[in-house]
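Example 3.
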Amino acid sequence: MFAQLLHPDVIIGILATGVRLATPFLLAALGEMFAQRSGVYNLGVEGVMMMGAFSGFWVTLTTGSPWLGVLAAILVGAVMGLIMAFISVTLQAEQGISGIGLYMFGWGLAGFLFRLLVGYVTSVDGFHDIPLPGLSRIPVLGTVFFDHNWMVYFSYLLIPITWYILFKTTWGLKVRAVGVTPEAADTLGVSVARIRYTCVIIGSMLAGMAGAFLTLGHTNMYADNITAGRGFIAVALVYFGRWTPLGIAGGALLFSTVDALQLWIQVLGIDIPYEFPVMAPYVLTIIVLALVSGRIWQPAALGRPFDREG
Amino acid sequence: MKRWSWILIVVLLLTTVLTACGGKQEAQTEKIRLALILPSTIDDMAWSQSMYEGVMAVQKEMGEDKMEVAVSERLGNPVDAGAAIRQYADQGYNIIIAHGSQYQNVLEEIAPDYPDVSFAYGTGYEAHDNIFAYDPQAQEGAYLQGIIAGMMTKSNIIGVVGPVEAGDAIKYNYGFQQGVEAVNPDAEVRIAYTGSFGDIAKAAELAKAHMDAGADFLTGTAQQVVGAINAAKEHGGVYWLSNDMDQSSLAPETVISAQVYHWEKVVQQIIDAHQKGETGKHIVLSFANGALELKYNPQLESQIPQEVKDAVEQAKQQIIDGTLTVKLPEN
């Protein structure tokens, strides 16, 4: 039975699935990275993803264009990010609690709107795969990386783009400064509030896009709780990746590839109690996290509201 | 300032104490007040929707003046469900149905506190005192669907998209395997689990993996199957055997048959037993008592060879009169 698993077609299939499954994590986690680097942790990513999934689905259903759907999902994400930023930065509320509140709000609102505006389970025509000319013909790597829909490709590009923005631009430097010593940044004239607002909104826009991927780039349908906890896994990936784009990408790929592997282990009828494959992605991620040594660094001001008088 | 905050605290305490006093058991009235706790939504096209439709059908027949219904959805987590169940019991609801095998423990904990209220859960069989357990014999219809798949499969690979190895899923999967084996020992039935009842995207992914591995017949249980059905529809060239309710509206060219649960019979039995005071029954849904039914999709029925339908009909009769017993794991 294990021999079946080692068949090249199966391995390529598993890797390609792993890349595809990693996309929502990558989008949401890279967005959350900006928010956390600026000092705000947004646990409501799951709620934003759900609203993004629903908005993307509904706009596509009514207009016929998945592009408008993604745009709607990003806008909805921005609005929810604005709410979260207002609560966390201006009102200086406890971020963990307001994040969970945003999660429940997103879940409830998405379910409510779905029932109001749609009311039954149906599918849409989402994004199709675009094999990249030339690149998709490379043996093995071609199928694994270059035969997906545009959102998957976008998530690849996001890795170097976010790295460049965060580490090579002045604005990125300001973001990192605000997340470590907002007091010092403030004395140098950096608007801590504005940076945090921007980062939280960017994070939510990407989370909305991640939700839209689930409905428009993966399942082509919407049903209640379609995100099933992926938003929380994305937040965990930010910690796993030590707040760096490469770390996050590595974590997302590790988790998703093991997830794809465990599905195939079950499908091929390999005789292991199903509980083990199902928990494998989580267990392996924890093991890797424990083995990767080095100082545990995190943005020093993470979770602490900034008050000039305080 | 300090005095006002003391007055406020006293007022708040009084309010809390007084409302708590009002929450004791009210006297039993003639009217049936039924509360339904669902793990997913009333429109999930699967597990929860079929029970919701059953409850509504009973209410329609009894009349809204004789039966009041309250529904709480998205309570898949038994702890949250427990809080809702207690609230309903405190508010005087006399029948509370918690629709899922995961609610067994929470009901065991709560039921002794409310001896006048009838509680029900399922799939389950531990029934006693004021807890009903309803037990769809999913393995029966699964066996029949196994016959369909076993006789019609061309690739001899059949995939099952399972949630968690519990309750309904265990029965269904066991029955299905036996049905396939009975008619086609060469066919391979591959059972895979997502580990959750509600992860639609993962169910879709599992269906895709089955199809990539060569399955041409798929089946599965729980509210997440809608994802798998959609994936099967998009892939094309495979048939889906559905459970809980007729899911062919999701994929009219793909869903070939369905084992339908007639929950309204269960709900009616619970109401009748409650009114007579004979609570704590183990209620079985089977083909013999008409609570289970196998339906073909009219659009695809012509594609089913007559010999398959005959084999199904014969097996169904044997199950009903007891000559054929579909085995279940010892537990």
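The interface with chain A takes residues 40-41, 43-45, 74, 159, 162, 165, 188, 190-196, 198-202, 204-206, 208-210, 212-213, 226-227, 230-231, 233-234, 250 of chain B (CB under 8 Å). Chain B has two domains: 29-137+263-285, 138-259+293-321.
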